[in-house]
Specification:
heterodimer; A: alpha+beta; 6-stranded mixed beta sheet; 5-stranded mixed beta sheet; 11 strands; B: alpha+beta; 40% helix
């Protein structure tokens, strides 16, 4: 931002915005009276004004996530989110002059550790598949350097406070203070009394520019905890195997880090991610509640106006090879219920076909459940578009048709039934009333989302990182316009053998 | 907002440094929150039914909820409450069988939930506004005339319920729960051993139970004076008032069952209860019975609990487990209150097995410190601000939360005096008050320590 009186220009633009968005959309199905302002430094501000409300939902979205990681560092974006709770020189430090010197020493020690890890690489790296080949775990120099980092970290801890970013939100009435990192975004958020929205700007601008990665190695273990939590679920490894079966190149199918990745993160790499992506022209602020765009523009200027537009971070452009053959996974497990699952790659948000898959998921699930029951197969149908933890993406992902079975002996019959139903779906349109009900169902689901301003703000931010916030309303309207013939056409185009991945879960004993 | 001084600043300079004011020096204004006046939302019918109605305009949905002061602890025929919960959820009404009922809900794309707690029950229906009239009629019928059959008893006896989802939603919030629910259930069984709150019906009880027993339970408790209603959504309030009167005025008034005060619990000596589980993590729940909190202790207790372990926030438990050492993803305090009897006060965490003992020691250390010495000024500042400007106001955030909070308060206490005075009571809490309630309600020698995981550890 080069400074100056940007808000005057904004006010003029705002008048136009108000006429365009203000009243005209309030009365229709999907009320999204979003007001937008883009600052000179590229920072985007989105506001839904609700003048009668005393609180404001506040979110800051950054267009980066797991898609931007590199192999060997999976989960690094999620880890960065954790590190960005560790404070700044002005939030959390008791003596920044002394503390900063220690952080410099830690960085230098970490560089030396990297050199030693590289030097000893041939002794340290895994050689065997089944952990049947003994490789070295460490070297004396590695231990020495790690001990030095621990010691320096302990000194830094003496000079800083724990949890400095959340505490002020708590003290001034903030609720739902969270952060999330998925494949395509990282966001920090809090709901505040509207009259205290400045606090959000104060904290988030500081977090965006001045984060100190305090207590790095302890926080690394929190990620391990979260990963263990995932792995405690018997579904996790199966779902990850299915993800890797579906996609060959796209980063969208990669989980948030394997155990090996957690050991690899370095301050240097995290700093590189931070400095590359946390720039104003890669950032969107979203507010819903008792504030106005007119008030927010100068306030945002005050806290973010000094930031310079940065070189555009490289956006993820990975492209999945064309589907070229049916793939199959047989998974043996006594802890996971037997199931048959068929996945197909589907287009991304931003593609005209994508909205109809939401309707198809609901309509076909009903149809499939009836077929299953009629065939005397005990089981439950779940059709979803979830990959890792997210259900919509700005890049192609998958639709997952899952049949959870009560009896593994039904697996073969269930698979035949499922494939026959999918084949018929591409030939015969679903009944009009079933599609009408499915459309009502997804519409009601949206209303339930939008009833919560926090969830609504998330959807706006998510669409902004997937495509554009302006896509959200057309996306919802496109679902309402879907016809049975549209669904038949989708099935015919996408539900083809070459685009199919099949997973079957059977008990262990059958393989013995 | 400080727009005028800012404008002057902007006019005066072409570039400026980052604003890094200490949050305490930001002169953030008072929130101006005051609890809404219940009478602005209240409808009282002649049969004694109290309803709270508010408009919530954002989307064309409406939620209607009924709260009934009756739960699992109140049934005279064991299992009747559980069977009634099933009948309310899936049985239909006198005029509509279960299949028709399910299909009607499906066509409305309704979200229909019945939750029966120990001492109260919630029946809640959320539908698009276009279906409001039909939904309210159905809702009223379910409350007044649920169809009760042997099927409901069989299903309740089999423990038939909705399967819990095996994955979290997009937020992934459910991903880290693991076996925590098991550990909490074990603590509950230990604390309530021999108490009415632990009195679960067995298979034999359901075999002996008949539909008339369930109907009798329903007749006794599901009466207008023992029920409150909350309605919120994009609906005209006057229209809702009229519709509610149409549907529920002829619900016959009946004697309101007296409050059944449950007996107190004698605290047990501290003990470790280990439940072996082959998992990648261990789950730790430390807790004991919590007596009824008198009004004069409530605010200080809330402040103390916030300082110790407000959920997943910057608290003593989080600092000494996660923030400093990376032992766990979470360590927090939980207050599971009952309405008319002892609740459970617990502290929960989970981790890889090798650090679970350290977590236990650090958590107990913080609880002991809270009993031993006064909290800091800053902790008081944070907790009071969080409670009075955050957690309490959001109970009245919109029509949905507002009507729900008022309806529950009315049903439990019979009035709205507690919520009216809450903010003032919290503001008056002193560090000495916090120390007093810590010494009164944190009983370390009586902590029951539940560990679900591979290996146990010795406790001092």
């Amino acid at each position: 931002m080069t400074g100056g009186c940007m808000w005057l220009k904004s006010r003029i633009l705002l008048l136009g915005c108000s006429l365009l968005y203000g009243m005209s959309v309030w009365a229709d199905n999907y009320e999204l009276p979003i007001l937008e302002h883009t600052f000179d430094n590229g920072l985007r501000l989105l506001v839904i004004e609700r003048p009668r409300e005393q609180r404001v939902v506040s979110k800051i979205f950054t267009d980066m996530g797991a898609l931007n990681e590199v192999p060997g560092e999976y989960g690094a974006a999620h880890f960065l989110e954790h590190l960005m709770f560790k404070g700044t020189p002005t939030l959390g430090s008791l003596d920044w002059e002394r503390e900063s010197q220690i952080h410099e020493q830690i960085r230098a020690t970490e560089d030396a550790l990297t050199e030693e890890l590289n030097r000893a690489r041939n002794d340290l790296r895994q050689r065997g598949v089944f952990h049947d080949y003994r490789h070295a775990e460490t070297t004396p120099r590695i231990e020495e350097l790690r001990a030095l980092i621990d010691s320096l970290n302990a000194q830094a801890q003496e000079l800083s406070e724990e949890g400095p970013m959340k505490v002020w939100y708590q003290a001034f009435g903030g609720t739902r203070s969270t952060a999330t990192t998925e494949q395509e975004y990282m966001k920090f958020d809090v709901d505040l009394p509207a009259s205290r929205v400045d606090l959000f700007l104060r904290v988030e601008a500081d977090r965006m520019q001045n984060s100190i990665f305090r207590n790095f190695d302890a926080e690394r273990m929190v990620l391990v905890e979260q990963r263990l939590g995932d792995l405690n679920r018997p579904e996790t490894e199966f779902r990850e195997a299915m993800n890797s079966l579906v996609g060959r190149a796209s980063m969208v199918y990669i989980p948030e880090g394997y155990a090996n990745d957690f050991e690899q993160y370095t301050r240097r790499y995290e700093r590189e991610l931070y400095e590359t992506y946390f720039v104003p022209n890669n950032t969107t602020l979203i507010f819903i509640g008792g504030v106005t765009l007119r008030e927010m523009v100068p306030l945002v200027e005050e806290y973010f106006g000094h930031m310079q537009r940065a070189p555009e971070p490289k956006r993820y452009q990975g492209r999945e090879p064309l589907p070229s053959g049916e793939k199959r996974l047989t998974w043996r497990s006594d802890t996971l219920s037997p199931r048959v699952e068929v996945r197909y790659q589907i287009p991304a948000v931003g593609h005209p076909d994508r909205p109809a898959f939401d309707v198809l998921s609901v309509a076909f699930a009903e149809d499939l459940q009836q077929r299953l029951t009629a065939a005397g197969i005990a089981g439950a149908v779940d059709i979803n578009t979830r990959v890792v933890h997210t259900s919509r993406f700005g890049v192609p992902a998958s639709i997952n048709v899952e049949l959870k079975l009560s009896d593994a002996d039904d697996a073969m019959a269930a698979e035949s039934l499922l494939l026959a139903a999918l084949a018929q779906l591409s030939k015969t349109a679903l009944p009009e009333e079933d599609v009408a009900w499915a459309k009502k169902s997804v519409r009601t689901e949206w209303y339930r989302t939008a009833a919560d301003p926090n969830a609504l703000a998330f959807q706006i931010g998510h669409f902004e990182t997937m495509d554009s916030w302006k896509t959200l309303k057309p996306y919802l309207e496109a679902r309402d316009a879907v016809t049975p013939e549209d669904l038949r056409r989708l099935a015919d185009r996408y539900f083809i053998a070459k685009n199919r991945s099949i997973g079957v879960v059977l008990p262990e004993e059958e393989s013995q | 907002m400080r727009t005028l001084p800012l404008l002057l600043l902007l006019l005066a300079c072409s570039a400026w440094p980052q604003v890094l004011t200490d949050p305490r020096d930001m002169a953030l204004p008072d929130t101006g929150f005051s609890r809404p006046d219940p009478t602005d939302y209240e409808l009282v019918l002649e049969n004694g039914l109290h309803a709270y109605i508010a408009r919530a305009d954002q989307v064309p949905l409406v939620t209607m909820s009924a709260f009934v002061r009756a739960g699992k602890v109140n049934d005279t025929a064991p299992g009747a409450a559980e069977a009634l919960a099933d009948a309310l959820q899936r049985g239909g009404t006198a005029d509509m069988n279960a299949g028709e009922f399910a299909e009607t809900l499906r066509l409305m794309t309704a979200d229909f939930v019945v939750e029966m707690h120990d001492e109260w029950t919630e029946v809640s229906l959320n539908v698009p506004t276009e279906d409001f009239d039909q939904a309210l009629a159905l809702f009223s019928e379910v409350l007044r005339n649920p169809q009760i059959s042997g099927t409901n008893i069989e299903r309740a006896g089999a423990g038939a319920g909705a399967e819990s989802a095996d994955l979290g939603g997009e937020s992934g919030a459910a991903l880290y729960e693991g076996s925590m629910n098991d550990a909490v259930a074990h603590l509950r069984d230990i604390v309530y051993e021999g108490h009415a709150f632990a009195d679960h019906p067995g298979p034999g009880d359901f075999e002996r139970l008949g539909p008339s027993d369930v109907a009798s339970f329903h007749r006794r408790y599901f009466v207008p004076g023992n029920t409150t209603i909350a309605v919120a959504g994009r609906v005209d309030v006057d229209t809702v008032n009229t519709r509610l009167a149409d549907q529920l005025s002829d619900w016959e008034a009946a004697p309101v069952p007296p409050v059944e005060q449950q007996t107190a619990i004698k605290l047990k000596r501290r003990a470790l209860h280990h439940y072996p589980a082959r998992k990648l993590q261990s789950w730790l729940v430390i807790g004991h019975a919590l007596p009824d909190l008198p009004l004069e202790d409530r605010a200080a207790f809330d402040v103390m609990t916030y300082i110790v372990g407000a959920y997943h926030l910057n608290t003593r438990l989080m600092r000494e487990t996660r923030y400093k050492y990376g032992y766990t993803n979470d360590a927090s305090a939980f207050v599971d209150e009952q309405w008319f009897g002892p609740g459970i006060y617990s502290f929960r965490s989970y981790s890889r097995p090798e650090v679970i003992k350290s977590i236990y020691q650090n958590m107990m250390g913080e609880l002991e410190r809270t009993r031993r010495e006064e909290v800091s000024d800053r902790e008081m500042f944070v907790a009071k601000g969080a409670l009075t400007d955050g957690l309490f106001p959001v109970r009245y955030l919109d029509g949905y939360t507002l009507t729900r909070s008022l309806a529950l308060e009315k049903l439990r206490y019979g009035n709205h005096q507690r919520s009216a005075s809450y903010v003032d009571r919290v503001r008056k809490v002193t560090k000495r008050d916090v120390l007093n309630v810590a010494q009164k309600y944190l009983q370390l020698e009586n902590m029951q320590i539940v560990l679900v995981g591979e290996e146990a550890f010795a406790i001092e």
